[in-house]
Write a structure and sequence with these properties.
Helices cover 28% and strands 39% of the residues. The chain is of the alpha+beta class. Strand 4, helix 3 and strand 5 form a beta-alpha-beta unit. Bound molecules: coenzyme A.
Length: 148
């Protein structure tokens, strides 16, 4: 299996990002404006855009990497690719000198929350009604990479 990560060209690949996101996130998919605000990375597996990560560096504060999206194409889920992408996200954050990673997930997203926990993320809070369609709370999680 050949796996590579490359930064998405948010202008030239906007349509591809929107299509991918709709397949993975349905009602939670980002709109055009949201994609213009993030640093998007493809995970390419054997030439196929299998996954996508969206970063917001230095949000909500300097030294923090906010991960806005972690998605694997539905037909390729459950084969270890999400775990591989999470490991890459953490390595990327370390290489770029971030002190911590923060992320939010639907409270019902047990597989993502469990995946994060397995890498050492801990729950830091709950934001009521963060998501819509259906309305649901977000669980906020963080991974401290190096103490302040
Ligand atoms: C969450 C997601 C990124 C995980 O990617 P994946 O490739 O399916 O996950 P993996 O095969 O690497 O499995 C990683 C872990 O997820 C969990 N998991 C995966 N599939 C699961 C399933 N069907 N049921 C329960 N847990 C599951 C397991 O804890 C697994 O741990 P293990 O490696 O110890 O077995 C992927 O399913 C996805 O894109 N989901 C839709 C988008 C989403 O909800 N993203 C997160 C919010 S940003």
């Amino acid at each position: 299996m050949n796996v590579e990560f490359r930064r998405a060209d948010r202008q030239a690949e906007l349509r591809s990002l929107l299509l991918f996101d709709r397949k993975v996130f349905h009602a939670d998919a980002f709109d055009r404006d949201m994609w213009s605000d993030v640093d998007a990375w493809w995970m390419i597996v054997d030439g196929v855009k299998a996954g996508c990560s969206a970063f917001e560096p230095n949000e909500p504060e300097p030294g923090t990497l906010y991960i806005a999206t972690t998605g694997i194409l539905p037909r390729l889920q459950g084969r270890g690719l999400g775990r591989l992408m999470k490991a890459w996200q953490i390595a990327w954050a370390r290489q770029h000198g971030f002190q911590r990673i923060v992320t939010n997930h639907r409270a019902s997203n047990k597989s993502m929350i469990q995946l994060n926990r397995s890498f050492g993320f801990r729950k830091t809070g709950r934001i009521p009604a963060y998501y819509t369609n259906p309305e649901e709370a977000a669980v906020s999680m963080e991974l401290v990479l190096r103490p302040k």
